[in-house]
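Tokens in:
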């Protein structure tokens, strides 16, 4: 059996992930929204709270007004939701069930990409 290059697995994953994006689900994100989504997902995975204020303080994402606009867009698209905290003025950013399902599907793409690969 022919040995699989790691690059082949990654390229297969990209192909499967692209096909997933073509399926009817959540509206697409722009690159900045994808970065924000990754930060929200990582915070959730690490069981850390991430508030709107925390996100707007991340200078690497741009101006607070830009971040606020993207968060609003992502809420309207169904990727994130804002949950109340003990301080009514602070909202915690969380992934929606639809976003979690999207990550599950991406994970399946990773597993499919490695099926039958001999490394």
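Residues out:
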């Amino acid at each position: 059996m022919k040995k699989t290059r790691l690059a082949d697995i990654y390229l297969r994953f990209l192909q499967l992930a692209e096909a997933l994006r073509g399926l009817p689900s959540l509206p697409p994100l722009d690159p900045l929204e994808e970065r924000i989504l990754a930060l929200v997902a990582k915070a959730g995975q690490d069981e850390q709270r991430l508030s709107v204020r925390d996100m707007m303080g991340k200078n690497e994402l741009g101006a607070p007004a830009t971040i606020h606009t993207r968060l609003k867009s992502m809420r309207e698209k169904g990727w994130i939701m804002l949950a109340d905290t003990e301080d009514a003025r602070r909202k915690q950013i969380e992934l929606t069930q639809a976003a979690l399902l999207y990550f599950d599907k991406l994970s399946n793409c990773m597993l499919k990409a490695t099926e039958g690969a001999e490394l």
